[in-house]
C-alpha cells in the first residue's frame, strides 16, 4: 500500500469575526440626528430602517445594494443591537391579577 503525501497547501481560513463590542460600536445615538434614534456609524440610517428592510424580506445583499455606504458588519450590528434591546427588556404585568 502506497503512502499518500499530503500536499503543501496553504489553508485559507475565514477571517475572524468581529466581537460583539466591536459591532455595537458601529451603533451610535446622537440627539441631533434622527431625534436620537440608534443609527449606523453616525449616518442618517437608523437601526430601525435596517430591521424594517430585513423584516420586509430584503436580503443582506439587497440592503447593501440599496445603501452602498453600509457594510455587512453594519447589518450585523443592527441585528445584534436589536437582540440586546430585546434580551434586556423587562416585561411587567399591567391590570388586574386573578
Write the layout of secondary structure elements.
Blueprint: H1 20-24, E1 27-29, E2 38-40, H2 47-55, H3 60-66, H4 72-87
Antiparallel strand pairs: 1-2
Helix pairs in contact: 2-4
Beta-strand content bin: 5-15%
- Rounded to the nearest angstrom, the distance between the terminal CA atoms is 78 Å
Number of helices: 4
Ranges where pLDDT stays below 50 over 5 or more residues in a row are: 2-16
Shape: globular
Structural class: mainly alpha
Order of helices and strands: HEEHHH
What does this 3D model show about the protein?
Strand 1 (27-29) and strand 2 form a beta hairpin. Residues 2-16 have low confidence and may be disordered. The chain has 98 residues and is mainly α. 38% of the residues lie in helices and 6% in strands. The chain has helices spanning 20-24, 47-55, 60-66, 72-87, and strands at 27-29, 38-40. It is built from 4 helices and 2 strands.
What labels would you give this structure?
98 residues, 4 helices, 2 strands, mainly alpha, two-stranded antiparallel ribbon
Give the structure's gist in a few sentences.
The protein has 98 residues and is mostly helical. 38% of the residues lie in helices and 6% in strands.
Amino acid at each position: 500500500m502506497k503512502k499518500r503525501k499530503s500536499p503543501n497547501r496553504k489553508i485559507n481560513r475565514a477571517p475572524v469575526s468581529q466581537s460583539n463590542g466591536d459591532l455595537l460600536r458601529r451603533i451610535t445615538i446622537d440627539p441631533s440626528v434622527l431625534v436620537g434614534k440608534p443609527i449606523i456609524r453616525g449616518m442618517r440610517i437608523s437601526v430601525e430602517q435596517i430591521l424594517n428592510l430585513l423584516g420586509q424580506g430584503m436580503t443582506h445583499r439587497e440592503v447593501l445594494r440599496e445603501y452602498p455606504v453600509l457594510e455587512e458588519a453594519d447589518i450585523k450590528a443592527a441585528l445584534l443591537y436589536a437582540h440586546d434591546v430585546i434580551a434586556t427588556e423587562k416585561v411587567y404585568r399591567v391590570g388586574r391579577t386573578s
